[in-house]
Amino acid sequence: MGTKDKMPEGKPYVYDYSWDQWQEWVKENGESGFRAGQIFDWLYVKRISNFDEMTNLPKTLRDKLREQFDFVTLHEVAHYRSKDGTVKFLFELADKNAIETVVMKHNYGNSICVTTQVGCRIGCTFCASTLGGLKRNLTPGEIIAQVVKAQQLLDETGERVSSIVIMGIGEPFENYDAVMTFLRVMIHPKGLNIGQRHITVSTSGIVPNIYKFAEEETQINLAISIHAPNDALRSKLMPVNRRFPFADLIEACKFYVGKTGRRITFEYALMGGVNDQPEHAEELAQVLQSFPMAHVNLIPVNFVSERNFVRTPRNDIFTFQRILEKNKINATIRREQGSDIAAACGQLRAKHMESGAR
Q1: Known binder of ligand: residue 226?
Q2: 202 is in an annotated binding site
Q3: 299: annotated binding-site residue?
Q4: Domain encompassing residue 139
Q5: Per-residue model confidence as pLDDT tens digits over 19-57
Q6: Catalytic one among 113, 142, 253, 345?
Q7: Which spans are transmembrane here (predicted)?
């Protein structure tokens, strides 16, 4: 494990453990199995913030928990609310690194976008998340704590988190084990009990872990950040393509669809004059013809001051969409949210880093 992959030192976080791990822990500590359910209930149903609040646990058990675990520290550095209801948090972790979490309001409920790494090493040329590179992976508990924080915010109005997108800062499939622990807690009926089909994991194309994810036997959605219709252009926009070439990525996606029978969403950020021409749409349609349920999510690129990309004109976005649909490829245009509060991944953290923070 490289230096940048190391988790923070010290005790594990109380959110780091899955249901199965808590069952093992209570057994190893001479406690009855039902205690695992009580701990889960305090953490994810009652959403308490210290061990003293676990009032139906014996004091000896609470003392053991306090000795062996910490609660995640998410210090709120900033909190912005958009005119469309989007709320963006900048949190400081125990080691003073900063992460972002976004809560989005839709007509079908509340969605939360979570971060999985401090920074990112993928290096996409149009993204703010990769500025400054990768600092470290988050623990499962640091990812879970973002959802708990969002739910505590929504508790004030009697609402709940209804869906999750793992599309914040970082590459989820480069922190695979922590992300899978996070997902198991999210979907567990005694955890936050969020429906699997209401969760989406997005990857830039870490091919080995696409194969691995296909074997997980979940109903969780998979999104692939594709952003180009061919190998040469994708390598210019996404250096990860040099590690996992376009053809290998498409083969992995075909395996996933064949294994799971589930649809993949292909995320495509439109950049003016770069990847948004009619010929790009035609080429993309040809690539995706072999995916009977392919869905393309067109994303007008966000302006990032450190990058040179410009937004595709509105009419050209619709032209791109029409070409895909003419070729029987389902395509939607992502609705912008939180543009007035820099809600795109990494923008707020980038500003924070400019001030000398981490």
Answers
A1: yes
A2: yes
A3: no
A4: 75-354
A5: 999 999 999 999 999 999 999 999 999 999 999 999 999
A6: 345
A7: none
Tokens of 26: 């209570």
Q: Is the dihedral of CA 64, 192, 75, 133 positive or negative?
A: positive
345 is catalytic: yes
Q: Where are the beta strands (DSSP E) in the chain?
A: 75-81, 87-92, 98-106, 109-113, 117-119, 134-137, 161-166, 199-203, 221-225, 264-270, 295-300, 330-333
Q: Is residue 51 domain-shared with residue 80, that is, in the same domain?
A: no
Whether residues 26 and 152 share a domain: the answer is no
* Residue 37 assigned to a binding site: no
* Nearest one of 310, 318, 237 to 272, comparing CA atoms: 310
Q: Which of 92, 100, 174, 267 is catalytic?
A: 100
Residue 283 a catalytic site member? no
Residue 6 falls within a domain, yes or no? no
**Average pLDDT over every residue of 311-331:** 96
**Residue 2 maps to a domain:** no
Q: How far apart, in Å, are the Cα atoms of 348 and each of 78, 81, 131?
A: 9, 13, 11
* Per-residue confidence band for 343, with pLDDT thresholds at 50, 70 and 90: very low
Residue with tokens 């646990």, as numbered in its chain: 57
Which string of b and e fits 86-104 if b means at least 16 CB within 10 Å? bbbbbbbbeeebbbbbbbb
Beta-carbon-side half-sphere exposure of residue 203 (alpha carbons within 13 Å): 24
CATH of the domain at 46: 1.10.150.530
* Same domain membership, residue 227 and residue 80: yes
Q: Model pTM?
A: 0.91
Q: Are residues 52 and 163 in the same domain?
A: no
